[in-house]
Design goal:
One of its GO terms (cellular component) is SCF ubiquitin ligase complex. The chain has 8 helices and no strands. It is mostly helical. The chain has a domain of about 90 residues.
């Protein structure tokens, strides 16, 4: 009697394991069977960080996102508010929106922090957060300097 009970228990355990494997395979197949248009529609509602992560998830998603300007354009245009000249120059030069975004994202973050006054009270180069700094052209530094000079708490060097 106990032997029969053990067999039934083992049978139920293996059924549960098989069912969980089947469910996982079914879920994977579901995503593989989604039409590309549906995936693009889903991706279009993602924020930039999520879209970047999705593009690194698997080969298919990378292929869907890599040259799709309609997915990257809104995020690129959001950066344009900070880096108008840089974004416009890249677009005139024929860069894709994804490439333009990659080329200008870090610069836009540094520039945004400077323009918002985050680094206005820096007294020496040692106080700058090196990890987020990036090379910028003279025009960008000129824009930042103009804003800094106009700040009410700016001290004139005499």
């Amino acid at each position: 009697m106990q032997n029969n009970s053990e067999r039934n228990h083992n049978s139920r355990v293996s059924d549960i394991e098989l069912n969980s494997v089947d469910a996982e395979n079914s879920q994977n197949n579901f995503f593989e069977r989604l039409p590309e248009e549906v995936i693009r529609q889903i991706f279009s509602s993602l924020d930039m960080q999520s879209l970047c992560r999705a593009s690194m998830t698997c080969r298919r998603w990378y292929d869907i996102t890599k040259d799709n300007d309609s997915l990257w354009k809104p995020h690129c245009l959001a950066l344009r508010a900070v880096c108008k000249r840089e974004i416009d120059d890249d677009q005139k030069s024929g860069y894709s929106f994804k490439d333009t975004l990659l080329r200008n994202y870090q610069k836009s973050q540094v520039k945004l922090h400077w323009l918002s006054g985050r680094y206005s009270n820096i007294c020496s180069p040692d106080n700058l957060p090196e990890a987020i700094m990036c090379p910028m052209d003279a025009e960008t530094w000129g824009e930042i300097l103009e804003v800094e000079m106009e700040r009410p708490n700016h001290k004139q060097i005499s």
